[in-house]
Amino acid sequence: MSPFPWKALAALASGLAFGLGLWFLRSDYVGDGSASCRSCHTMNEALASWRAGAHHQQDCGECHLPQGPFPRTWAKGVDGLHHATVHAFRREGIYHRLASPAVVEANCRRCHQSSPRMHPLSSRPCLDCHGDTAHGAPALARR
User: Fold this and answer.
1) What letter would DSSP give residue 117?
2) What is the pLDDT of residues 22-69, one digit of tens each?
3) Class of residue 112 by CB neighbours under 10 A (exposed 0-12, middle 13-18, buried 19+)
4) What value does the CA radius of gyration of the chain take, rounded to a whole number of Å?
5) pLDDT at res. 55
6) Where exactly are the structural domains of the chain?
């Protein structure tokens, strides 16, 4: 009886893992632009409302992800795990969640801090009055 070919099995597993890793890194899922969001069919409603909104020239992450390389990567990882879990267990109706209101608020203020149109009510959360600005549909902006 010949010994089990552990080396061949290890080489095959390593090659498979390496190949899948390269495929994943080249896929839209890990991109930082809006193509990541547009690649998922469950985002069609959000994509349509975003195209109708005032911020359609901005990438999704400019509003929905925290700034800085570590917080941004962490948030994408956590959200990606959420998406994978939802799809794996077919939990219809909760496919995507938006960034926390605090992240969206911080990004609104970051981009618009020097805007001459920043008004005296700027102590209120931006989405209280402008919830339909980015997506053009108030229901989506407040989910």
Assistant:
1) T
2) 665 555 556 666 777 777 777 778 888 888 888 888 888 888 889 888
3) middle
4) 20
5) 86
6) 29-114+121-141
